[in-house]
Design a protein that fits this description.
Blueprint lengths: L10 H5 L4 H9 L7 E4 L7 H7 L4 E5 L2 H14 L4 E5 L2 H4 L8 E7 L7 H11 E12 L17 H10 L3 E6 L8 E7 L1
Length: about 190
């Protein structure tokens, strides 16, 4: 089941909306000790920077075969052996990773789906105790050059409430202004 369509642009245009390295640096920090789970990897804009920051494997999930092939190609060309890109409908079938196995999970630009709680609960299930979930989404208070319609974009407050309902605590806002002027970020702990 696809997320309500937000119209993924061509990769060059997509990359022009944010600095993936800067965003990952702010959301993940310098180093992640363990595995990372990415829901909806798209072109790998965040997959590659995450793989460079983790001691573990980045499991990058997407429902689109072309996106998975693109990420696999990037990983191979960059010599990043710690990226495992998998074709998966994680909304319908879950992430496929073991419970409490991940140090970090990333949900970027996906929480405009009709029912976000099951996805957030799956992230919570996959994270180990003390694991961290990073959330980034298009801002709902201003028009942006891309993204889903403003009417279906969640606010930071809605996302914070959903994270709490899914079992996350210690939820903090992360300033993404320099790297992502059209996005907001949140980090929650399991």
């Amino acid at each position: 089941m696809k997320v309500r369509e937000s119209g993924m642009p061509e990769e060059a245009r997509w990359a022009g909306f944010f600095d993936g390295e800067a965003a990952i640096g702010r959301l993940l920090g310098a180093t992640v000790h363990g595995d990372v789970l990415e829901f909806g990897c798209g072109y790998g804009s965040f997959t590659v920077p995450a793989a460079r920051r983790t001691s573990g494997v980045v499991t990058a999930l997407d429902i689109e075969p072309a996106m998975i092939e693109r990420v696999r190609g990037k990983a191979a060309s960059l010599g990043l052996r710690n990226i495992r890109a998998e074709l998966r409908d994680f909304i319908a079938d879950g992430s496929g990773v073991a419970a409490a196995s991940q140090a970090h999970a990333m949900i970027f630009n996906l929480l405009h789906l009709a029912q976000p709680l099951p996805l957030l609960r799956e992230a919570h299930r996959a994270l180990r105790d003390g694991g961290v979930l990073s959330v980034m989404h298009w801002r709902s208070d201003i028009p942006t050059p891309r993204g889903p319609p403003l009417a279906i974009r969640p606010t930071p407050q809605q996302c914070r409430q959903w994270l709490e309902e899914a079992g996350f605590h210690g939820i903090e806002s992360v300033d993404l202004q320099n790297g992502c002027p059209f996005h907001f970020g949140l980090v929650g702990r399991r």
